[in-house]
Amino acid sequence: MVVKRITYPLPKEHYNKSLFQIQKEQTAFQMGTVFLKKGTRIPEIGFTRHPSYEISIIQKGKIEMLHENGSIKGYLKSGDVVYLEAFEAQAGNVLEDTNLIYILIKA
Q: Which option is the CATH number for 16-106: 3.10.180.10, 2.120.10.30, 3.40.50.2000, 2.60.120.10?
């Protein structure tokens, strides 16, 4: 068993802090935290797609999620748990300083 404290990156550090990276046979797991500053867009341009399934827990803050055509997909806020398919397009506007915990699963 490995136990770690949940800590977030400092505002001056990279926005993503990995807590665990585990490879078991054909499946890889990664868990970490993210700090997003109010007024930023993630990513700055376009959309992110990654080969992992994602579960994120919004600890505090608010993010306006976008469709690829630029329209609003919805809002993520404190207490929300989000599931994303592998390769699903992701982009959003950070409306409040946001802390979240993520788990990536790559089969």
A: 2.60.120.10
